[in-house]
Amino acid sequence: MNYLKKIYAKFVFPLWGLGGFYWNSKNEHGVHSPFVFNLVTKCFYDKKNYPEYSSLKNYRKSLLENYETIEVTDFGAGSKVFKSNTRPIAKIATTAGITEKRAEMLFRITNYFQPENILEIGTSLGLATSALSLGNPKGKIITLEGCPNTLIQCQYQLQKFNINNVECINTEFSNYLKNFQLIYFQLIYFDGNHSKTATLEYFELLLPTITNESVWIFDDIHWSTDMEEAWKIIQKHPEVTVTIDTFLWGIVFFRKEQPKEHFVIRA
Q: CATH number for the 2-264 domain, one of 3.20.20.70, 3.30.1360.120, 3.40.50.720, 3.40.50.150?
């Protein structure tokens, strides 16, 4: 009986949620907002084979071939995979890092909007960081990571692949955001503490940095009931005008000229 419960929890519930997403989601043909239509057709569904994809693959390959272990300090909602804080780098890259498909999409979004200032909350080994950097090599990226050992490995990787537009900061996220010098970020990628309280705290602390062109990407909005509740609160916020739910990501815009509208897009 316990075995059946584990199978049900591992496979049935996730598929149920994903099935509900696909039932309610649209592709470009169901989108009537010109801004969102262009984003979906010219960015999300862009089939061009960018040369930067090879760089992203090589960055990932280098991590997957690294079998050294590090002691990880976890300040977030915890891991659903690891039972110990001593973790192989290759395993962290496989389970905790952004997927190859998501990295390519993050590259395309950054390339599409060309943000001048980017903030990443939750560096890990830098798989997403490299996508942000390659998307706009002229942009400035600040990336925050709570675990010093993980950040050191990321810095090794960034140096190895000559990624020079990233400032890595070892910090507890909320402490940094409460005290940092105001910067108007055009893109923020939230991939740190996957809890409702922390996500909403970061959201509120960063609201003073928004511009009309700001793009905020929240990772794993359906990771838990907690995160789904946070996502719904963010959608209702008066400063938010357009949101896109891609199942794994929640993308937020603050464009004053746009009517408030929420999209569920297969991407």
A: 3.40.50.150
